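Explain this record to help learners:
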Amino acid sequence: MIDDFAIARAIHVLGLVHWIGGVAAVTTIVLPRVRSIPDPARAIAEFEAFERRFAAQARISILLVGLSGAYMLMKLDAWSMLAQAAGWWLDLMIAVWLLFATMVYGVEPLLHHRLRALALRDKDRAFAAATIFHVIALTAAAAAIAGGVLGAAGAL
């Protein structure tokens, strides 16, 4: 019989695979592709075509990951681990979640038009900055996932 914790963990992992897989695709496929397009308007249009479709999906995945993660913390009554050095992997997972949630729900919608205008003025600089941010975010997410898997398995 499958219990509620197993369902929460499955939702958590599926949400992470979708969300971070999409970030990996943007970082390693979409951004290099649009950076190679000489025309800024066309590069932005291609990036926005992908981003528009993925952002809506990512918002759902990020929400599900946050809710399922909080549920598992409550179910295990593991809040005290957040203050312990051995629980660093929980802190990192929450920090990565907060970073992405802030970007997807707050910064990007508020600054979309300004970011687009910057990219039209200086495409190379804008996409280089986006690439750097995505590489850092993807690296942090990978570390959080590795730490979460090892921590949940009791290896840390």
